[in-house]
Design a protein that fits this description.
Two copies of one chain form a homodimer. Chain A is α/β, with parallel strands linked by helices. Chain A is built from 14 helices and 13 strands. The relative contact order of chain A is 0.17.
Chain lengths: 416, 416
């Protein structure tokens, strides 16, 4: 039997425990939704004040050069790079994940069309269970190009290998599934995709800052991801796109805004590609939200992704074990793999009344979230989640289940 | 002869003068670059603090509903709508201007392709002197579609009417030229374009908050624009896109991110268009930068675009008159029209040593900017520019010219 004392002991031994103090967590709350919106670093406020009063208010347009605004998507990209196994000048923090997916897919299709042996390929592979925006953007590209493209939606991770064959032009996979927390094998799927002559794009929304990622070791082709989940950059903060050196010279995508031009301030009347990571940029970026990405990344410089991963697995293991210990009598189904090799940093549990139970948890200060159908998601963020948080969350879950305290929520609609 | 006393008198009579106190302008500075980056509203700091500490830090993911994050691109769009003659639920504040140009052009081409009488049209018209990103995005779309599209770059505003003929699918025009301040006739060009069977998109980057705009009165088709210039929303704040009711049901563009879905939280595996203004959205928006658009718009609620326009013309008239009075011996060329009907809210003046002179002005605290070739740009923002500012700016310009105080800057390169 795991005890509260044991959890407290784990906290005492936890090398990452002091990092929690970097975050402004609300009182009386166990926040298990950092996989949706990361908590606020205390430093964010001071950083925003500096940008607003000094860079904007006082220095005004001089900040484009003096404060490095113009280079900030790339300088913050360089700060982010080590977390995903990218080299310097391979990452841009810019636009939304959806827009970056569009750029990466369009850029990958462009490369495939310009190679004789892949020019006729018209299949794009992704998972049916992928986050919807990934699929929607693929549909948008397919309709817009109107050139015979076909989406091959794969039903299960086990079927991916076979679905990626020599008809495939481009594969777009999310490394860690947003709903189940299932983590795909990046190395194997990248190698297999490329053996078939296709290019692979990795969506790292639920990976960056959550699990170790080494894009260059995997020799992947492109990647995109989110900064406002595990990277704690703030609501809707700009996303990132990775274009490795090997593809930068040939990278062409239709969102050719002036920030992608090789000499943007010459104001030339015709586009000329930069041939470097700037090819992934488009227009002017929201400097306040963008700058706070740097604040979010600062916490990661005090530890390593290996230590974060070790604590993440300990937290999710503990949560699974405690739920089994305390809630065995209830119809709960674990949706997240037990196998460490294929688990992200969340635990998803289905229950026929999942939505109502999650509402009851939130009312008691345990903040997770709900995803159709029936899935309660709990995100574990080693920078600020403690083992005692896990204990307390499961105690409250058990109390709600044992006494059907979710009954009052059963009428509420899940879809907002 | 215009005197300093006369300028002081104009300030005393200026109904908008008290609004200057809403802005945190740096000391010892005459800021004439609000057409590049608007000044900081004092309220921005407190607003940002609220978003960071309360909405993000304390309420966390609950803010998506509780604080209205999810609807904020549209609720702020509704705040902006009156300034450009848009109805409610026709404007989204989202993404960058470049990305929004892409959406509007792709959406307009889609409509044209689906009408029998315009399906074969392949010409897109814009001005050669347009802001480069507009042209670059058109080039991006042309290459991406690879369907025979041709850009017709028109050399002069006078040639536009003739260039817009029955071969034209879509026209993309910037209402006020960024370099010269020349303002096109929106009503006439819209009517002519539509008579030719084409659709027209207006870029309002240098119009919104600067000159009265009435998109619905002009019966225009689409519009985009910037919020960080005359609307004072902060560096790189999200841009806007206007999709009028008449086009919302048929509006389809390839950046179909999940925010454009009719039921985003149902997480359906296939895109379904909303058929309303949400069709102009794509992915998650940077909430801190986005929210400050609202702070920028607040100042406009204390006056009207008619009063702003009257003061703008008075300021630019005064600047032109004072430059002619004080700098007549120097080789200055007025690039901005004298005719009020075709002048925006800036004055551009060419000088063979324009770059060096602008550097000298900036060193003396007169902040304008420089655009190739040879053009010094001075933006006039009635919310915070005074008539005495204009007097002082010209005094300093005259001193620099009379005593060649720009000599030291002649070696510097204009392109950064």
């Amino acid at each position: 039997m795991i005890s509260a004392q044991h959890c407290a002991q784990l906290d005492q031994q936890d090398e990452l425990a002091p990092l929690r103090d970097l975050f402004a967590l609300p009182a009386h709350t166990i926040y298990l939704d950092g996989n949706s919106l990361g908590a606020q670093p205390k430093a964010a406020l001071e950083h925003a004040q500096h940008i607003i009063t000094q860079e904007w208010g006082t220095d005004l347009i001089q900040s484009w050069n003096k404060a490095g605004w113009f280079h900030r998507p790339l300088s913050i990209g360089n700060e982010l790079a080590p977390l995903i196994g990218a080299e310097q000048d391979e990452v841009a923090v810019t636009d939304s994940t959806s827009v970056n997916i569009f750029k990466a897919v369009a850029g990958a299709l462009h490369i495939q069309k310009n190679q004789a042996h892949t020019a006729q390929r018209r299949v794009i592979v992704t998972e049916r269970s992928n986050f919807p925006t990934d699929i929607y953007i693929l549909e948008g590209i397919k309709h817009f190009l109107n050139d015979g493209y076909e989406l091959r939606l794969v039903n299960s991770p086990e079927d991916l290998h076979q679905a990626i064959d020599q008809d495939v032009a481009v594969v777009l996979l999310t490394h860690v599934n947003y709903r189940t927390g299932y983590m795909l094998d990046m190395d194997e799927l990248t190698a297999h995709t490329q053996q078939q002559g296709a290019l692979i794009i990795w969506d790292l929304c639920h990976s960056a800052g959550a699990v170790p990622v080494d894009l260059n070791a995997a020799q992947a082709d492109f990647a995109v991801g989110c900064t406002y989940k595990y990277l704690n950059a703030g609501p809707g903060a700009p996303a990132f796109i990775w274009v490795p050196k090997k593809h930068q010279a040939s990278f062409a995508q239709p969102l050719t805004g002036w920030w992608a031009h090789q000499s943007p301030f010459e104001m030339q009347p015709s586009f000329a590609a930069s041939g470097d990571i700037r090819g992934a940029l488009c227009g002017t970026q929201p400097m306040i939200s963008l700058s706070l990405v740097s604040t979010g990344l600062a916490a990661f410089k005090q530890t390593s992704m290996q230590k974060i991963r070790a604590k993440s697995l300990a937290l999710t293991d503990l949560f699974i074990a405690l739920v089994e210990q305390r809630c065995a009598d209830h119809p709960l189904t674990l949706e997240t793999p037990r196998d460490h090799a294929i688990r992200g940093s969340q635990v998803s549990i289905a229950h026929p009344h999942g939505y109502a139970i999650m509402q009851a948890l939130i009312e008691r200060g345990v903040i997770g979230d709900y995803r159709e159908p029936h899935i309660m998601r709990f995100g574990f963020t080693p920078l600020y989640t403690s083992f005692t948080d896990v204990w307390n969350a499961v105690e409250i879950l058990a109390d709600i289940l044992d006494h059907k305290k979710y009954d009052v929520n059963l009428e509420k609609s899940a879809v907002t």
